[in-house]
Automatic annotation (TrEMBL):
This is ornithine carbamoyltransferase. GO terms for molecular function: amino acid binding; ornithine carbamoyltransferase activity. One of its GO terms (biological process) is L-ornithine catabolic process. InterPro entries: Asp/Orn_carbamoyltranf_P-bd (IPR006132), Asp/Orn_carbamoylTrfase (IPR006130), Asp/Orn_carbamoylTrfase_sf (IPR036901), Asp_carbamoyltransf_Asp/Orn-bd (IPR006131), Orn/put_carbamltrans (IPR002292). Residues 187-340 form the Aspartate/ornithine carbamoyltransferase Asp/Orn-binding domain. Transmembrane segments: none annotated. Residues 40-181 form the Aspartate/ornithine carbamoyltransferase carbamoyl-P binding domain.
Length: 354
């Protein structure tokens, strides 16, 4: 039985049982794919086609069912090691990657700027070549996207963007898996982004249209996304026949939306801008009043950590909030990324409907 929960809003429906999720995962098309991502980098979802992103979500669903719900042990990464470079602190990215890679039999190595000479006493080029000789992949959580691009250029192993100032692709994969589990299908959904024009929004803009999802964006004046990224998103919207618009009015962006999304207003490295940003984002807090403008089946996402000024407790802890399911799915999607980039694994379950 294929789930479509657009009109079911109780806590019970939002916290599906294991039995229900297993049944959901069994729906869809027969298991077959021509997608092969082995050896690829994941720097931005702009570089991935619709079918390639769907393959990653399919693999994540497959691993989640087989490991979490069926209790299988899948040492798919046995004998492989992962270098985890973190310039920025993290809860979900670090924990999901370390536990996920280890659960698949691999060995994750956590490295901060206190542990390695990243671009200071040793060039990025030299670091990339050394890591290539000792590990099988690198996940890097950095400030500058250009550092990731250089690592990818110089490394002979896959480089995965764990977050940069420009993109956060592994977060968006978790968001899409969560929405696919909840709604049963992504095509036709409308996402409303209410907040800062940051790296998370950029990654949504590089991928939502590929699933046939519409996107409404509300940002304060002067805090919108990069114009170059807007241009690419507009091209995707035209190519895939989706709606994309930008506004400074949160209620206009929320109008008719299935999914309300926000993020921190003050990212790491922007602490000195706090006073200015708090003033600019007045009126942008997501509340039940915001939800009244949305579709009847609206849900809420936030990549965490969350501040009350971004979304109030009534929404954040309500049955409409999918944030903790979203957080858990960071683990299954990063596991899918690592398996897809490092092995020839093919999902065993039927392909979900996207």
């Amino acid at each position: 039985m294929l789930f479509n929960l657009r009109n079911l809003l109780t806590a019970a429906t939002l916290r599906k049982s294991s039995k229900q999720l297993v049944q959901h995962f069994r729906s869809g098309q027969p298991t077959q794919t021509s997608v092969n991502l082995k050896g690829r980098d994941l720097l931005t979802l702009q570089n991935y086609t619709a079918e390639e992103i769907k393959y990653l979500l399919w693999t994540a669903s497959d691993l989640k069912q087989r490991i979490k719900y069926k209790g299988e042990y899948l040492p798919l990464l046995q004998g492989k090691s992962l270098a985890m470079i973190f310039e920025k602190r993290s809860t979900r990215t670090r924990l999901s990657t370390e536990t996920g890679f280890a659960l698949l039999g691999g060995h994750p190595c956590f490295l901060t700027t206190q542990d390695i000479h990243l671009g200071i006493n040793e060039s990025l080029t030299d670091t990339a070549r050394v890591l290539s000789s000792m590990t099988n992949a690198v996940l890097a959580r950095v400030y500058k996207q250009s550092d990731l691009d250089l690592l990818a250029k110089e490394a002979s192993i896959p480089i995965v963007n764990g977050l940069s100032d420009s993109y956060h692709p592994i977060q968006i994969l978790a968001d899409y898996l969560t929405l696919q589990e909840h709604y049963g299908c992504l095509k036709g959904l409308t996402i409303s982004w209410i907040g800062d024009g940051n790296n998370v929004l950029n990654s949504i803009m590089m991928s939502a249209a590929k699933f046939g999802m519409h996107l409404h964006v509300a940002t304060p004046k002067g805090f919108g996304p990069d114009p170059n990224i807007i241009k690419v998103a507009e091209e995707y919207s035209k190519e895939y026949g989706t709606k994309l618009f930008f506004t400074t009015d949160p209620l206009e962006a929320a109008s008719g939306a299935n999914v309300l999304v926000t993020d921190t207003w003050i990212s790491m490295g922007q602490e000195e801008e706090k006073a200015e940003r708090m003033k600019a984002f007045q009126g942008y807090q997501i509340t039940m009043q915001t939800g009244k403008a949305a579709a009847s089946d609206w849900t809420f996402l936030h990549c965490l950590p969350r501040k009350p000024q971004e979304v109030d407790d009534e929404v954040f802890y309500s049955p409409r909030s999918l944030v903790f399911q979203e957080a858990e799915n960071r683990k299954w999607t990063i596991m899918a990324v690592m398996v897809s980039l490092l092995t020839d694994y093919s999902p065993q379950l039927q392909k979900p409907t996207f």
